[in-house]
User: Fold these one by one.
Assistant:
Number 1:
Amino acid sequence: MIVSHQHKFIFLKTKKTAGTSIELALSRLCGPDDVITPLTKIDEAQRSGGRGAQNWRLHGWWQSPRPFWKRRFWKFTAEDYGFYNHMPAGEAKALLNDDKAWRSYFKFAFDRNPWDRQVSFYHHRYRRESTPPPFADFIHSDRRARINNYEIYSIDGALAVDFVGRFETLDADFKHALEQVGLSLNGEMPRAKTTFRRDERPYRDYYDPTTRDIVGDWYRREIDLLGYTF
């Protein structure tokens, strides 16, 4: 995610929606006091002409105000170290600790047709396996099959951002988001993580009626919000 105090915007990064490409582009526009969360080593190498990860760490995890046993036996949280990739809006708002900034900054995120997004996630999930399981098995049995994008740009179930762009109209919607804070991007948007999908069949070909309905039920809120159809 990115919090730009210089340009007064907050970008909440969702999953499988070109979020890394958007971050790479936004890092070109950020100032020295802006928050940029870390990417993988490979993705960081693509920040050509932009700033790298900065200002995201509040302190070392060993200095966390939470008791050590909670960190050891539960999980690390934003309170332990700071801003992080795919951070939900509620945590970002709390960590920003400035309600005026949260209310006044332009907040945006991107999402994608959930049926297509799920196929993209399937290929990413098994990118290192030469023989991945059938897509239906992934949907039915993989505990990590579900994506929490709606939870990233909502708080207590209510939309928490000013604009949700669409992956399907990425360039136009990204341009629109930048225009809201008086910015524009020089050059083309970087393209990251575009090689995981080895099977280029249309996403509908992956589904049977049961898996289609499962995904529809999982992501009913973003489907209703953005009007996506199978």
Number 2:
Amino acid sequence: MPIRGNPGLTRRAFIERGAALGGTALLAGCQPPTASAPTAPAPARGDPQSDEWNRTLEAARREGSVNLYGGMGPDNRAALVAPFERAYPGIKVNGTFGAGRDLVVRISSERTAGKNIADVLIGPGASGIIPLKPIGALLPIVPTLMLPEVTDTSNWLDNHFWFLDAEEPYTTLGYVGIVQASITVNHDVVDPKQFTSMWDLTDPKWKGKMCASDVRAAGAGSVQTRYWYTHPQLGPPFMEKLFGEMDITLSTDGRQLIDWIALGRFPIGVLINSVDIIPAQEQGLPLTLLPGDQAKEGAPIGVSGGTANLVEGRQNPNAAKIYMNWLLSRDGQMSWQREVKQNSLRVDIPKDGIPAYTLPKPGVKYVNTATESYGVLSGTVITDLLNRVLPS
């Protein structure tokens, strides 16, 4: 059973290579080299009728609860709480929901205070690995996977698990795969079809007419900017022109960005979170999110908050194991898709209701720039570039 971690360079090697190449030649073949795979658990150990599973479930019910830290929004709560409690009566989900960067800070602060509360962390990817893994806050996931339908990697895209770690032990598993879009327009003002290259954003006619997520803060746009930075046809020259010459207005407030685009104040939005766009579209606002692959430079795949982590020092270790297996099961992933409307990397479930432009196309090998190897670029060379070129 192939279990593949992040196929990529170590953090230090990636940054050093990026500095040497100016970020313009890191995507040779659009696929970094493949890392070695950890030892897979034997399929039989995940039999739900096995003594081990039954003992774990009984112990989880004695614990009575699982402490879950998850992403913002009622859709996350709807996907992650009640469906599990229905599937496993007697195990209550104590949910704490917030922005991924805030949850990471909270876990770090709790560990410093000697209060390890979280059992399971949902949402942060590289932004969680980089600060939490070195301090021992995250545990390996593979030993907790018990259900055969979870450990059978033929149920997952490209027949492997999508770990985000640069190296073993693998602690952060992506279960969502979305082809990332970068451009949103007010289609009452701007024709979406005119954008066939990312360079089209640098046309002088758009100067002062664009807003964007401020990617110097972890969150929306990070995956796309890592792709830009390392793309041989984009790289630092594109980013320097876009952010340094186009008079683009930045914000970390997703709702504010949506309002600006919908009202036509800035008819083009860049790097806007699709989680904010889709509800606005459902309300009838004139917003079109361009498919990521509409641009000739292509688009990366990202996890968009769909990651699973086990937190060290768990108060409810058995309940955490049961929860992790449920989340990655067919039922758990269907619950996520139904409520959050994000594509699961499980290929054995229907994709009804998922925006077609976010679905990976068969036969296309996408660069996963949500991984740790790429993630380190966001807090280093990309932030440095933006600070250098943005007007003070």
Number 3:
Amino acid sequence: MSQPPEAAPPQRSDAAPAPPGAEGGVFWRLGGVLKTVRPHQWVKNVFVLAPVVFAKHIFDPLLLTRAGSAFLVFCLLAGAVYTMNDLADVEADRLHPVKRRRPIASGRVPVGVAKLVASALVVVSLGWAYALAPAFFVVAAAYFGLNLAYSLRLKHVAYLDVGIISTGFVLRVMAGGYATQVSVSSYLLVCTALLALFLGFGKRRHELAAAAHNAGKQRAALEAYTQRGLDIALAITALATIVTYVAYTLDSHTRAFFKTDYLWVSTVFVVLGVGRFLQLVSSRPKSESPTQEMLRDGPFVGIVLLWLVLVMWVVYNLRPA
């Protein structure tokens, strides 16, 4: 009597999901490329516009055009960095319950295509940066070099990885100043650095809690982090961010420059935003990232918009009686 054929062994749960198939065609792969460069994350590059906004030049057509160009350069450069980061992380991403669905990790975007896209974005963005201003090009190139080092090695060093992310935001602000030839306040640079550190530590805290025993496999630096250490880092950077922002709004030079004593009122929304982000870190364990989640969280987006409206009103319209 013949034996029934053996059942195929079940697939490992940590294997990357099979792509829908080559029959997806060109548009399917192009969609994967678009997803890889993460246009939804480009909102971070609005920090490039900060010098123009806080220098009261946002309605100057020439400066606004140059600032917009600088913003687009950093968007293209960020797309290249995200692509290169996914290339470097492809094996680790295939072990992650959410990141395994990323286009490169899943096979939707072939590695060769991803490398070509990253190279093209780097050439175009840095060429555009040099045409805009040599000093802007230097900062943009430094941003790219720093992120390249991050993707290849430095992201594996706990705390230094978050420091590099923070430095990237500071470079964005500096680049905006060079592109528009607007001086950048030291307060703006310090607030940017502290806020970026806060967001970065929040992301690591979320990743550590979500990864559980697979932390080291999903991100090598997570092995050196502890929840208590990250909670302390979050508390320190949150408080430092708020205190520095309050000091900026109350500074005599700030009040004289904006001709108003009311900018401090916007601190309310800074406190609410910090609190809401901490909520997202602890209450959305299944999301890929709290920094990504905050961009589609209604309350957080509302807080940011209210802060922006209030700041614009105070800086550009309100005058003391």
